[in-house]
Amino acid sequence: MGVQDDLLTYYADRYQIVAFWSLRTADRKIVLGNKDNRVCRFCGKAEPEVTFRKDAHAFPECIGNKSLFTHYECDTCNHAFGSGCENDFGNWSLPMRTMARIHGKNGIPTIKQGPNSVYRIDGHPDGLSTNIDETEGFIENDKSARILKFHLRRGPYRPAMVAKAMTKMALSIMPEEELPNFQLALDWIRPGSASEMTVAQMPCLYTFIGGPVANDLITIAVLTRQHEGLAVPYSFLLLRYGHEMLQMILPSIERDIHLYGKRLDVCHFPCFQDDGGTVMRPVKRNLLAFDSAEVIKNDIFVLEFSYQQKIRH
Ligand SMILES: [Zn+2]
Questions:
Q1: Which range marks the domain in which residue 194 is found?
Q2: Which residue from 43, 118, 131, 228 has the fewest beta carbons nearer than 10 Å?
Q3: How much distance in Å is there from the Cα of 267 to the middle of ligand 1?
Q4: pLDDT category, 228, cuts 50, 70, 90?
């Protein structure tokens, strides 16, 4: 058995999938929930106290979601999430969405850096175009190794808000009967909430997938623990789009309080493949800390591309 099979067995022995979607940008529109009895899952309010006129994306359009919506997010919460935690998530994820050529609300986002945004990377249906300068540190060319290193800057973001955005995605696709296990998490993500619950000191497991990737495919799932005898976190969100897969432990104090303070071993879930098959791609794994509430500015990460021959114009 390969490592991938070992990991699958690890999760199959401990978890069940309670929500799973694999969506293409062009898929038909699906709306979750009851259209005739609309109650907001996030604030608990119903018509006529709140309205439900806007399309409520189950997870943000910026990662290419143009098909999965819900009937149970009111316009007030929709607006507050959009200008709050989902904005932080959008800023954090922006450079990689460009590099993967993912179409958001206004097409593929442009990366602009340097004085007067002079360095740009624009996405097009067939690739990327760049206007960059090696001398300014935006790009590094390691000629001997034939590697181009892009120094990409994320937009300003608050890590804890990125975690809230991912928790909100999970709670949007969560089956109704699971919600009692996430009441404190719902309180934590509620716009304007005074809840200071931190994401238990558990990092987000991050996988970077190299090589060509689909730019119109999102795979998202929620797993829950099979039984209380297992010393593993109750629930995970798995989210794959473009070159990235994020795996976050969902805060369920209700189900995990007995584990607090104990050492837990957590391993990366096997990466969802573009074709649903077993073709393995080169991956890099990492841990991300999304617990700080401070604004992070000028967060640069380095993206490497190997090349055979540099083409000069
Ligand atoms: Zn609401």
A1: 3-100+156-303
A2: 228
A3: 35
A4: very high
How far does residue 145's CA lie from ligand 1's centre (Å)? 53
Measured in Å, residue 58 CA sits from the centre of ligand 1 at: 13
pLDDT at position 6 is 85
pLDDT tens digit sequence for 246-283: 999 999 999 999 888 888 888 889 887 766 554 566 78
Whose structure tokens read 């460009």? Answer: 98
Cα(73) to ligand 1 centroid in Å equals 5
Distance 204 CA to ligand 1 centre (A): 27
Classify residue 62: in a domain, yes or no.
yes
Number of domains in the chain: 1
The two three-digit tokens of residue 66, written as one number: 């143009």
**65 alpha carbon to ligand 1 midpoint, in Å?**
20
Place of tokens 């401070």: 294
Tell me the pLDDT of the chain averaged across its residues. Answer: 88
For residue 45, the CA-to-ligand 1 centroid distance in Å is 6
- Centroid of ligand 1 to alpha carbon of 43 (angstroms): 4
| Helix, strand, or coil (residue 224) | strand
> Does a structural domain hold residue 107?
no
Tens-digit pLDDT profile for residues 14-33:
999 999 999 998 889 999 99
Query: Per the domain annotation, does 189 fall within a domain?
Result: yes
- Separation of 154 CA from ligand 1 center, angstroms? 29
Q: Which amino acid is at 212?
A: P
Question: What is the DSSP secondary-structure string of 96-124?
Answer: HHHHTT--BTTBSPPEEESGGG-EEEEEE
